[in-house]
Write a structure and sequence with these properties.
Layout: E1 12-21, E2 27-30, H1 35-45, E3 54-56, E4 64-68, E5 78-83, E6 86-91, H2 94-111, E7 119-127, E8 133-139, H3 147-159, E9 164-168, E10 170-171, E11 174-175, H4 184-187, E12 191-192, E13 196-197, E14 206-207, E15 212-213, H5 218-230, E16 234-241, H6 246-251, H7 279-295, E17 300-304, H8 311-315, H9 317-325, H10 331-348, E18 352-356, E19 369-372, H11 377-384, E20 389-391, H12 394-397, H13 419-423, E21 440-447, H14 455-462, H15 465-474, H16 482-495
Parallel strand pairs: 2-3, 2-4, 4-6, 8-9, 8-21, 9-16, 16-17, 17-18, 18-19, 19-20, 20-21
Antiparallel strand pairs: 1-7, 5-6, 5-7, 10-11, 12-15, 13-14
The structure holds ligand TNX.
């Protein structure tokens, strides 16, 4: 199997004897609940097989059989068997079958590159992931990506067995999530009058004179969620609060702290504008979350919570009175209170709150999960207190950083995160007591898009780094070798 650059590397590969030669008419059969997986496999193979494959009834002789095997292996585990007589894929459920199909499709696509018959060497692959949260985050607020572009991004994630898509839907520079009850969020909040040219740190700042806008419809959201679900990807939507809310405050000034109007932010960096802590604002955000929960069926709802500058609360009579009324010592505790209001509401709707690691600086309700981005220590601390954690440190998995540059690369936010650095990432912190390891759900790469204006640029930033992360999260730690991975990635990229 060494000749095949499988990505991510499977757990266990045993070479068999002989090989399987594909007939000119390939057929796929499947047990009842696996029809969707069979259809997706057929669709994918359509691009490489000389004639389209067909689905047939499980009783007939077929090239590829997808079989449901209730016992053995986790939900995402599979066994792929290639023998001279045919190909069988078994798993305890549709997710495992889907991952087995990704492995099989990689094998077939690679052999199909050579002229002549398609022949696969006999092999048995037993495979399952190391972590359950294998994610990528996409920021659609700084630059907007359409539902079709998001689906193509998700499609590519699925090929490497990533299973969680975190959708950063709102920020200072644009509100992209449709809320029926508050239409101005998209009418006003999704448009900025012009956008910064060049880097946010350069002075003087220059702006283009192009209005920039974009938002989703509820149909777009449903389509993305369904597209992702078919590929066994859970979507985690994020409404970032109480900071990163300038676009919402531009739409509904009563959410802010100042008597004067603010616009949607035209440049990057952290905004001073933050939601006020009035009961009406808390209710407003709960209503927004209700509509979010109605459109996204997944277990986690992300409320951001990062980089909340509390300066405006320090200057506001209303915020100060609220702090006294609630018996809170300072603005930091007020931020914690705000987040807990959201967490309680999310829990009352049967979902779990997740937020950036700043929320862990205040007491959290049990069941709240955190996403550790300012390094891994905040994640280790939260795990030690019994909270679930997704590791997403800017040191290793920020895909808005340069690959190797800045020399020879397009403008980026800065930093450098090489493929090797991503590959070296270990999600379980060394200093975490083994009793708490189970709280590390996995990890996630983040694509912030201040400097990522187009779909091609997005793929350029995310890949191949996302593949390194996929292997970190799927493959057993002891089986990971950088040189081996680097070789497989370059073979794979050549074939693409
Ligand atoms: C920090 S990471 C942010 C984002 C920026 C990003 C740029 C995090 C939770 N917040 O708002 O886009 O840095 O790398």
């Amino acid at each position: 199997m060494d000749q095949f650059p499988l990505l991510p590397l499977p757990s266990n590969v045993i070479d068999g004897s002989g090989s399987f030669v594909f007939p000119s008419d390939v057929t796929v059969s499947c047990d009842e609940p696996l029809t969707s997986e069979a259809e997706l496999l057929i669709e994918r193979l359509g691009a490489v097989l000389p004639r389209p494959a067909g689905v047939v009834n499980a009783a007939q002789a077929t090239t590829i059989q997808l079989k449901h095997r209730p016992q053995g292996g986790g939900r995402e585990a599979y066994q792929l068997n290639v023998t001279p007589a045919g190909i069988t894929l078994t798993a305890a459920g549709p997710a495992g079958i889907f991952y087995g199909c990704q492995t099989l499709a990689q094998l077939i696509e690679q052999t199909a590159q050579q002229p002549g018959e398609i022949r696969l060497p006999a092999v048995t692959i037993d495979d399952e992931p190391r972590f359950g949260w294998r994610g990528l985050m996409l920021d659609v607020a700084r630059h907007f990506f359409t539902a079709d572009e998001v689906c193509r991004f998700i499609e590519r994630m699925a090929r490497y067995k990533l299973n969680t898509f975190h959708w950063h839907l709102t920020d200072d520079q644009g509100w992209r999530f449709p809320v029926k009850r508050y239409p101005r969020l998209t009418e006003v909040g999704s448009k900025r009058p012009y956008t910064l040219i060049g880097h946010n740190e350069s002075r003087p700042r220059h702006y283009d004179d192009q209005p920039y806008w974009g938002h989703y419809t509820p149909e777009d959201i449903r389509r993305v969620v369904e597209f992702a679900a078919k590929r066994h990807i859970t979507v985690v939507p994020e409404i970032d609060m109480p900071g990163h809310m300038q676009a919402a405050i531009a739409a509904y000034p009563e959410l802010g702290n100042l008597p004067c109007a603010v616009g949607v932010r035209p440049h990057w960096g952290i905004s001073q504008h933050i939601l006020n802590p009035k009961p009406a604002t808390i209710d407003f955000m709960k209503n927004v979350l209700d509509e979010l929960i109605d459109l996204f069926p997944g277990p986690f709802i992300h409320i951001g919570g990062d980089e909340a500058l509390t300066h405006e609360w320090g200057e506001s009579r209303t915020a100060q009175d609220r702090m006294i009324e609630l018996g809170l010592k300072n603005e930091h505790e007020l931020q914690g209170w705000f987040i807990r209001q959201m967490g309680d509401h999310i829990a009352s709707r049967g979902r779990r709150m997740i937020g950036w690691d700043e929320i862990g600086e205040n007491e959290l309700s049990p069941g709240t999960a955190i996403m550790s981005w300012r390094g891994t220590q905040a994640g280790a601390d939260a795990a030690a207190k019994g909270h679930d954690v997704v590791m997403s440190p800017h040191t290793h998995v920020y895909f808005d950083h340069h690959h190797r540059g800045p020399e020879g690369e397009p403008l980026a936010i800065g930093g450098m995160t090489t493929l090797e650095k991503v590959y070296s990432f270990e999600p379980i912190p060394d200093n975490l007591d083994p009793a708490h390891h189970r709280h590390i759900l996995g990890a996630q790469g983040n694509v912030w898009t201040e400097y990522v204006p187009s779909e091609s640029h997005l793929h350029y930033m995310a890949f191949p780094r996302a593949i390194a992360l996929a292997e970190v999260l799927w493959t057993k730690r002891a089986a990971r070798r950088w040189e081996d991975f680097a070789g497989r990635v370059s073979m794979h990229e050549k074939l693409r």
